[in-house]
Amino acid sequence: MSDVMSDAPRPRAPLPITIVMPAYGRPHLVARSLPHCVRQPVAEILVVDDGTPAPLDAAMAQAVRDGAAGDPRVRLLRLARNGGSCAARNAGAAAATSDWILFVDDDALLADGYAATLLDHAAKHGADAAAGRRLWLDDGETPEQALARRTRRVSAEQLIDRRHFWFDDEATFDDDLLVPMACAILLVRRRWFTQVRYDEQRYRKSGFREETDFQVALQRHGAKLLACPHTACFNLSKREMGRAGGQRRGQLLRYEWNVLRNDARFRAKHFAALQRELGCAPGATPWLGALCHYFAFRVPSKVRHLLGRAGP
Fold first, then answer.
1. Per-residue DSSP letters for 4-25?
2. CA-CA distance, 110 to 292, in Å (whole number)?
3. How far is the C-alpha of 108 from the C-alpha of 110, rounded, in Å?
4. Are 121 and 226 in contact (CB under 8 A)?
5. Secondary structure of residue 43 in the 3-state scheme
6. Domain 8-306 maps to which CATH number in 3.90.550.10, 3.30.390.30, 3.30.930.10, 3.30.300.30?
7. d(Cα 234, Cα 237) in Å, to the nearest integer?
8. Residue 310 has what pLDDT?
9. Neighbour tally for 53: CB within 10 Å
10. How far is it, in rounded angstroms, from Cα 266 to Cα 33?
């Protein structure tokens, strides 16, 4: 991973960052991803168990112990009931003690230096939030192989689709950019949580749009969001993730309906700001925009992936 770590600072003291990892019902993923968090030189690491039911909650606690390997920075925060990923993120932010929070999904592996690189580049540009690239691993593929293979370069204009509110996670680009949306594995100043929180009501049944909603809300309050091509994280393959737990549990049609509904709710919530402040095109109405996204972008994207073709 040397090409995404070349300018990563190597501080002696812990970085003023709390990693927050929401988790539900997937202890095998926490056991995979947590060691990558432990390798980051941060001040603390919070795994927020979003109400995993018994007896799986014991396996979740064991996965945290195994992944932490005795590191005292790691704490398990267990919520009394399942409130969804947004509630878990907010609970983690409330419990954090560092100046910055790095939100990490339980199915994501951080490159060594991810936290340090983002903090360094956010400070350089005076940004309030920052995210790197996110590469989706194929079955049996290592992060090193993914970095070597994912070399598609795009311009600043191509990086974001302002009609479908899509950020090209896997693309590389010339240098840091201030953007309206970015990857979900996000570093953000903790003080912004006095004004902005993840929306626990709109995205309770599905996490689709929860991160984009939070990022747009940050910018509506004056925050600057940075996309940084100098570091990366890696999403585990679908086979390794499995079907249990997480946010996609349940019937496929129900999940797809929630995707469509969440998109319409997101567009309705930020409709005027998307047009006037961020230069986006939310559609003639929120529902028409959501339907256009679903059939003109999401469905073709799923077909391309099934056929093994490159692209969003």
1. GTTT----SSPEEEEEEEEE-S
2. 34
3. 6
4. yes
5. strand
6. 3.90.550.10
7. 9
8. 56
9. 10
10. 29
